[in-house]
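CORE FACILITY INTAKE
Project code: CF-77B
Contact: R.S. (postdoc)
Sample description: multi-component assembly, two entities in total
Requested service: structural model of the whole complex
Turnaround: standard
Below are the sequence entries exactly as provided by the requester. Do not edit them.
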Amino acid sequence: MGNRNRLDLYHARCVRIGAGVLAQCALDCAATGARRVLIVTSAPIARLADELSEHLAEQGLTSTLFKGPDGEPTRADLSAALTSAQDFGADFIIGLGGGSAMDVAKLVAALFGERQTFDEVVGTGLLAGRALPLACIPTTAGTGSEVTPIAILEDEAAQLKKGVVSPFLIPDFAYLDPQLTVTMPRKVTASTGIDALTHCIEAYANRLAHPVVDSWALEGIRLIGENLEIACNEPDNLSARENMLIASHLGGMCLGPVNTAAVHALAYPMGGEFHVPHGVANSLLLPHVIRFNAEEAPERYARVAHMLGVADSGDAARDAAAGIARIEDLSAGVGIDRRLRDVGISSNALPGMAAAAMTVQRLLQNNPREMNEEQALRIYEAAL
Amino acid sequence: MGNRNRLDLYHARCVRIGAGVLAQCALDCAATGARRVLIVTSAPIARLADELSEHLAEQGLTSTLFKGPDGEPTRADLSAALTSAQDFGADFIIGLGGGSAMDVAKLVAALFGERQTFDEVVGTGLLAGRALPLACIPTTAGTGSEVTPIAILEDEAAQLKKGVVSPFLIPDFAYLDPQLTVTMPRKVTASTGIDALTHCIEAYANRLAHPVVDSWALEGIRLIGENLEIACNEPDNLSARENMLIASHLGGMCLGPVNTAAVHALAYPMGGEFHVPHGVANSLLLPHVIRFNAEEAPERYARVAHMLGVADSGDAARDAAAGIARIEDLSAGVGIDRRLRDVGISSNALPGMAAAAMTVQRLLQNNPREMNEEQALRIYEAAL
């Protein structure tokens, strides 16, 4: 984890942050010359989508909604959304929702017009371009998908998650409006918040770590440590909600240049096979993976601990351990599930999951400590 | 300096960081479909421009050089560069150099085709668009101009600097290649480095301060504190050079959303009337303005001091004072001028300068402490 890795940063051109910025989206849309806007969203937040449609109508734009699933999106959802976009004749795509809605929106904007199929672009750097302009508006504070070059779908047949990674997936516009997150259920606030924390921690303690990304990651960790409990306990606290959105955004900014590591690799099989929401899977695994990694990189995890409010004792290993305890307390305090068995996973599933996790070498190779299948199994067992 | 200001961030779409990224610029240029590239640069770095031309030629692109002045650019320089771009039929503009070359390149890319004149766009938000794609490649580590929405020229007739501020001035591509900065003279390394420090400090201690920008500013301050002396004393140290480029870049990222304050306002008349280089003017004023401001916002300046290595004593005013001493030591250690009289300014010029500084309300209104003409004069006198 030296600081001489080459770094390529791809940014959204425009990011607006603050209560009320949703209204600005319609103005930005209109300024691009767009006329017909497809809003990819999900049923629970239809009210917010209606509000956005009204803003667009005020600017003379026509819009239609595509309501995707509540849970993780599938290839079938993408196909349906693409058909909806083509039938409507969309010339601008907005993703409004959590990572699922935004990921589908990103793929619709990229694949509109059928120059490439989803199968052709699964992997890294295979997208030839993006067909339509794109804005993303998160209604959870977790994935940071509004600024990542990543979109992930479930392949129903293969029971596997498949990811597309390309700078062309990064939206043109992103809006972080805390008013859109105040109705998020406590459980979702909690698990998506821990997901954002995982992004920041895995980017900071990463073989590809870089000082620029470090500063984003550390600030994200600090903001989550100070705001997650408040956001859960006082859902209308706009300051805490905005700070959580910023933290999630900073975590997302880390994902492109550095990406995640073993927590995410081990979480993949839990999503694909057991349909555990992404944030929940990460939060269950995070302390156990850190405990495994900290032996190799105690200084990094000590710094994480300091950002979470642990005093610097001068003993990195001790501080790292205190940081793990702080993360476990934080998770418990906001009431998220603590064990794999709480989400319906039993011990006989673990060997298969460990084998599946080993296929995610794209992320495992970033991990500060090498991890083999046997070690992955031990981590699942510890988390069971 | 609460944290509930609304924030609009405009980013360069692609930023590449590391030794050797210069070569990547030609590939990115070619990928946009460009054929004829105007490189705006300055005489002392012609060798680097030749290297870039060779890379472009290898990708099948034709290029020509416009060599601007060593010092601060003027309206006449912009006119000449625009003529050069039109005559050459440029379809891509690259700024390669310090802030001067990059600022001219940004304005050429924006004003090419004569849809608007410079006079029509002086001020904030008046540019209607940018005519040509644009890349910026800094060869100093100071202005961060490769990511700012700002370009500044000297109006020779008015003896005043005039600024254009617009998101359209932010380049599409930026390249931070430490190999391009190793030949920078020590004096330039020093003054541009203190300029970057000034950007970070003025963005952090600013009425428009925001947590996202704070994290960039603080990381920039830390990197400068740890690397400026090394970059001056070991010019070939690529690690220190890269860290200084990153710090300058982070400072530049702060300038769009938050911008600077009284140091820059008071530096303006020194540039316009006395032709003191921008970085030198800032470095002469910085400790004196901080001393004035710290009475109003000691906590902010204490945090700056901590980033510069001052231990946290728990007494903000004391730490802020130690920070000022550290900045003065840093400036002295790298051998930059310390007093206004060292750059040819005498006491009888100060009242006129104080009056001129008061016209820069755009920046003065960001200052954490209100400053009137009398107080500006006292600061100039202290710096004399």
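Facility notes:
- Chain B has two domains: 14-180, 186-383.
- The mean pLDDT of chain B is 94.
Invoice: internal transfer
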